[in-house]
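Issue 218. Parser rejects a valid record. Input:
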Amino acid sequence: MKKAIWILWPSFLVACVAELVFFSVFDPVDFQLFGPLGLSRRAGYSIGFFLFWGIAASSSALTCFLQRSAGEVNRAP
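Output the parser choked on:
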């Protein structure tokens, strides 16, 4: 549980800042892949936030994975 908190809380804060910075420049209604997506602003902000949170959580999880000691890595199951 402690590692989940180490991963999710900092990534939540980073996602908040990333969303504020990104959506202060771009409007989610204007995004198009192969045509208009038809999303409301609220849906665009929500999807963007969870994407940023996922990216930041992946980064935090990789950091926790790489900071293991040699004893933890080489421990027999």
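Fixed in the parser; the record now loads. The chain has a mean pLDDT of 87.
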